[in-house]
Amino acid sequence: MSVCHYLAAIFCVGLSVLVIDASAQKCCLPDDVFSVRKGGVTATTRTGFLGLLFGQTSLTEEHDSVYDFTNNRFATFITRMILAPTFVEQHVQVIEQPGKDYVWVLDLDKQKCFKGAKEVYLFHLERCVSDYLIYSNTYYWGNKEIFVDGYYYGMQDPAPGVYSISVTQQCLPISETFIGKTNSWDVSQNVASSMGFYNYTVGIENPDKYFTVPDYCQTEVEQKDNSIFSWW
Description:
This protein is mainly β.
């Protein structure tokens, strides 16, 4: 959700950062309704013999997301470019509506709609820094111009691994990473992902664009578990 574009995505390569030994007060986002973009890279490798056979898959992702905590809803457009072994671009929309026990997952390329199980998902920004996240360190960029607090969490469900996120001391998100395993596409894979947030904007311009479920979803609907869809 926030400042610094790919500066965050590449984890400040070339910047000098100083780690400060201090504990941080867990914060909450300054706004209930906002839009934010997120972009980064992910590498996956199938476990076992299949990993040796197929090698690594690399991809980039761009998320155009809106959050409306006032009305308890969320939506995002995801553009995914699979870089290796083939070059394929995919477009997905996710819509979470209040009072529903599922999320809409739309394959925009094929105009297919899926109802995925709604579950607590760590890579979905929350209103406040969660209690289960553990403070790691505080550092700054530049001449003490931007102070950033880092948090991490060792998780088992829905995917085993270590998730980390960094936020400014005004609670604007900077970056997130995940290193672990996933069963996306029903295939066991090792995964490493680094994402950066940018273009945090208060309010949502044209909310219908994000929250309106297309008419074709009334007839072309499949029930799927969220594990089918790769959020990374």
